[in-house]
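Hello forum,

I keep getting stuck at the same step: I have a sequence, I want structure tokens, and every attempt I make locally crashes halfway through. Rather than fight my setup again tonight, could one of you with a working pipeline run this one for me? It's a single chain of 104 residues.
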Amino acid sequence: MGLYNPGEIEINDPPAFEMEEKVRLRKMIRNDGTFPGKEIGQTLAKKGDVGYVISIGTYLQMYYIYAVHFLESGIVVGCRRKELVSVDNPPEVVTSNSHYLIDN
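Reply #2:
Ran it on my machine without issues. Output:
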């Protein structure tokens, strides 16, 4: 779960992550102006931060937005699938000779 294809309409398929699933950020998230009480550009969560999906919504009738509660900071941030990887169910990478789990 959590693999990303930029040209697809995500909501044609089930969400990549489930409610209460433990996820890790693939990249730093900064305020784009939609997070109240923080300056635009201010860091909201850092690459590697771990949190839990607490709700799932949609954006532009194309993408799922996952509200992730980051326990260490106490902040809840809306994230796209491409910004997250599952800790509970890491994706498998298959090579011609063996299987490896992605450890982000």
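Residues 10-101 form a domain with the SH3 type barrels. fold (CATH 2.30.30). If your local run keeps crashing, start a new thread with the error log.
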